[in-house]
Design a protein that fits this description.
The protein contains 4 helices and no strands. The chain is an all-alpha fold and about 100 residues long. The longest helix is centred in the last third of the chain and has 24 residues.
Amino acid sequence: MSKKKVSLDSKFSSKTEFLMMKKDIISQYGTPGSVSAQIALLTARIQYLSEHLKNHKKDHSSRRGLLKLVGQRKRLLNYVRETDYEKFLDLKSQLGIR
């Protein structure tokens, strides 16, 4: 796994930009099924939905989906923290997760 930081800080103006980001994440972490790639993809989706909800405040179904994604990412991060703490710290710093 490379130490290069994934630039998830950018705001997505369209779905195509989000898909390009997804392709970059998969190429960086190898297989999309790895825990690191799943956490990075979930983080990108969470950021995309957060931006969407800033413009569409009454979209409750997307808000529920966002909360489900946050919970799923939390469970995956707990798994990584229990199995490989160094990898956990590295992922948190790379993705900018608190």
